[in-house]
Known about the structure:
By secondary structure, this protein is an all-alpha fold. It has one domain (37-233, 244-463): MFS general substrate transporter like domains (Growth Hormone, Chain: A, Up-down Bundle). It has 19 helices and no strands. Helix 1 (6-27) packs parallel to helix 14 (310-331), helix 4 (95-105) runs antiparallel to helix 17 and helix 11 runs antiparallel to helix 18 (436-453). Mean pLDDT is 82; it is low at 465-485.
Amino acid sequence: MSSLPPWLANLLPILILLGAISLVLARLPKVELGHTDAFRRRRFFNWFPLGMTYAFLYMGRYNLNEATSAMKSHLSNADFGTIFFWGTLVYGSAFLLNGPLTDRLGGRKTILLSAAGSSAANVAMGFVVYKVLTDGWVPPGGLVVTMSVLYAVNMYFQSFGAVSIVKVNASWFHVRERGQLGGVFGILISLGVYFAYDWSRFISKAAPTYWVFFVPAAILAAFVVLDFFVIRDTPGQTGHPDFDTADASSGDTGSASVWDVFVKMVTNRTIVIILLVEFCSGFMRNVIMQWYPKFAKATGIGETFVAANWGMLLCVAGITGGMFAGVISDRVFDSRRGPVSAVLYAGMSTGAVAALFLLGSPALGWTVIFMSLCVIGVHGMLSGTASMDFGGKKNAGLAVGIIDGAVYAGTALQSILLGSILPKGELAKDPANWGNWPLAMLPLSFAGLLLATRVWNAKPQPKGQPVATPQVAAAAQAPRTGTGG
C-alpha cells in the first residue's frame, strides 16, 4: 500500500474490515420478525444517510484537535482544553432542551437542524482562523474566547445528532434487532473519528489550517440536502406498516408532560446507573482519544505507526468493538446491554493499569487503541441502544439526551482536568512527566466496571399486553401510501 496516496492507504483497511463484517453478519442466522425485503431496503436507505451525517458531524466536532495542533504558535494544549471544555459543557447541558424538542419535532427535522447549524458554525470558525493566519487579526476578547464561543455554538447544534439518530431508528428497529444496530452506531462513531483525525490531518498538511473547518462544513451542507429528500421518521411515512418495537414505551397510550417523563427517567434505577456508566465513558473516551495525539506530538513520537495512523486505527478498533458488542449482546446475552458493557469496562480497566507502566514504550499506543475499542463498544451499547430500549420510541429523544448529557459531562470534566494537570512546555517532551494521564483514567475505569455489573440483568418492560410482531402489525392495517422518499 506504500504506492497509494496516504488517505487511500488509510481508508483501505477500513473498507476491508467493513466488508469482512458485512460478510459475517450476512451469514449469521437472522432474527425473524416478519420484515419484508422491501422494508429492509427502505430501512437501509433511511439509516445509512442518517448515520453518515452523524459520522461527518463527528468530523465537524473533533477537527478542533487537529486545528489547534496545527496552530501551536497561537493555541496551546491548555487553550485547546479550555475551548473543548466550553463546547462539551454546552453539549452536555443542551439535552434539557434538545431531547424533548426532538421527541416533539421528530428526528428528521432535528438532524437537518444539526447538520445545518454545525456547518454554519464550522464556516465561522474557519473564517476566524483564516483572518488570524493571513491578516494577523486579533478577535475581540482574544482567539481563545472567540473560538470557545463559536465551538460552543457548534456543539449546541451537534447535540441534536445522537438524539436524532436514536429517535428515528427507534421506530424502525425492534428491541431484538438493536444490539447489532448498536454495533452499527459504534461503526458510525468510528468512521467519524477517522474523518476527524486522519482526514483533518491530511487537509492541514495539504492546505491552510482553516480548510480543516471549511471541508466538513461543505460535506454537512451536502448531507442536509440529501437527508431532506431521503430520511423519514417512521415506516408509515414511506408506505410500510408501523409496528410495535417491544421497548419501554410499548403499550403506553397515555400522555405526560416532559417534566413528568424526565422525573420518571431520572428516578429509574437502571437509567440512573446507565447515566453514571456513560459519565465514566465520556471521561474515558476523550481522555484517550483527545490526549494521545497531544502526547505523541509533545514527546516526539508523532511518526510512530500508531500516532501517524491514529484516526484509521481508532476507526478499526471502534468498528471491531462496536460489532463485537452488538452481536454478543443480541446473540449471547438475550439483548441485554449490561453484560457486554461490564466485559468491555474490564478491558478498559486492564488497559489503564498497563498504561501506567508503558509511557515510554511503543506498546502504549496499542494499549490505548485497545481501550478505545472497549469504550466505543460501551458507548454504542448504552447511548446508541439502551437509550432506545429504556426510553422507548415515544421518549427516545429525552432518554438519549439525558444519557448523552452524562457522556459530555464526563468529557467536560476530563477536558478541564487534563488541560490543567498535564505537563507543558519543555516538561511535556519527557514521557515520564505524563504520569498524571493514566492516573486520571484509573478511578473512572474501575467505577464504570463496578456500575456496569449493577445492570447485568436489566431489560425494558413493555407497558401493554404481549407485543405484536411486524407480521401482526402488517395484517392489522392496510398498506398506506407515503412520501416514498
